[in-house]
Amino acid sequence: MVALRTYRDLVCAVRRAARDPGAVSHGDPPLLVRARVTTTSGTSSPMLDRTLFLTPYAAELVAEDALSIGAPARLELTVPAATPPDVVGWLAHRFATLGRRGVEVDIRRGSEGRGWAAD
Questions:
Q1: How far apart are CA 57 and CA 78, in angstroms?
Q2: What's the CA gap between 65 and 62, in Å, rounded?
Q3: Is 61 exposed, middle or buried (0-12, 13-18, 19+ CB in 10 A)?
Q4: Count of Cβ atoms closer than 10 Å to residue 77 Cβ
Q5: 20 to 30 A Cα–Cα from 112, which one of 1, 28, 33, 82?
Q6: d(CA 107, CA 103)
Q7: CA 108 to CA 86: how far, in whole Å?
Q8: Which DSSP state fits 100?
Q9: What is the C-alpha to C-alpha distance for residues 2 and 80, in angstroms, rounded to an integer?
């Protein structure tokens, strides 16, 4: 058992224990993403469009948004163009459960010349 002296020690220990393999380490800033949720049954306009830092809470929020649309739905996550491939892979793994629930997940990088977000 790790010696816990402060509340911060406890928070750090819990985060270490709960961290997914391949997740961003505690010292790294959260990833900025654009999340669009649409329905795949005809309309192409987003039903929900958010730009947020992908904290664990925000990831749950995005997943709930996609599931609330109902199947068939589509979740598009746009990450900065310079996002490393292992982070994109981690995102695909993180949101894979949505695919089994009728939500198509598309993760893409933003274009270099237009900032980080693709339109």
A1: 18
A2: 5
A3: middle
A4: 22
A5: 28
A6: 13
A7: 13
A8: T
A9: 37
For residue 32, what are its two tokens?
């900025």
pTM, two decimal places: 0.67
Side chain identity at 107, as an amino acid letter?
Answer: I
- pLDDT by residue (tens digit) across 66-86? 888 877 889 999 999 988 888
Q: Are 71 and 41 in contact (CB under 8 A)?
A: no
Is the peptide bond prior to 72 cis by the omega test (within 30 degrees of 0)? Answer: yes
Phi and psi for 58 in degrees, rounded to 5? -65, -35
DSSP E strand stretches across 1-119: 32-39, 48-53, 73-79, 103-109
Q: Cβ(40)–Cβ(106) under 8 Å? A: no
